[in-house]
Amino acid sequence: MPKMKTKSGAKKRFRFTASGKIKHGVAGKRHGMSKRGNRFLRQATGMAIVSEPDTRIIKRNFFPYER
After folding, report:
1. Residues paired with residue 14 on neighbouring β-strands, in sequence order
2. Residue 14, class by beta-carbon neighbours within 10 Å (0-12 exposed, 13-18 middle, 19+ buried)?
3. Please, which of 4, 13, 54, 57 could form a disulfide with 64 given CB 3.0 to 4.6 Å?
4. 3's torsion region: left (phi>0), alpha (psi -120 to 50) or beta?
5. If you ran DSSP here, which 8-state letter would residue 51 be given?
6. Which residues contact 51 (CB under 8 A, 6 or more apart)?
7. How confident is the prediction along the chain (67 residues), in pLDDT tens digits per residue?
8. Pairing of the two strands 14-16 and 47-49
């Protein structure tokens, strides 16, 4: 039976932490910054941790060999 493929789009959007959690980039920072408040922009820097239910979905469907 052939190997399952990892989704190439997911490889670009998610990173794994050492403990197995998944990080993702924060949405809403591509354009239109003048509409957004300073607090939003400050909190949206860097990466955020994906919630537990979404982590199960991402690992099961997008990264079949990451456990």
Report:
1. 24
2. buried
3. 4
4. beta
5. P
6. none
7. 888 888 999 999 999 999 999 999 999 999 999 999 999 999 999 999 999 999 999 999 999 888 7
8. unpaired
Name the one residue in this structure whose structure tokens are 């990173």.
15
Query: Nearest-5° angle of CA 58, CA 15, CA 13?
Result: 70
Q: Which residue has the tokens 């991402």?
A: 58
Sign of CA dihedral 53, 58, 64, 66: negative
pTM of the model: 0.80
* Predicted local confidence at residue 4, as pLDDT: 87
Other beta carbons within 10 Å of 51: 10
In the block, residue with structure tokens 């920072």: 29
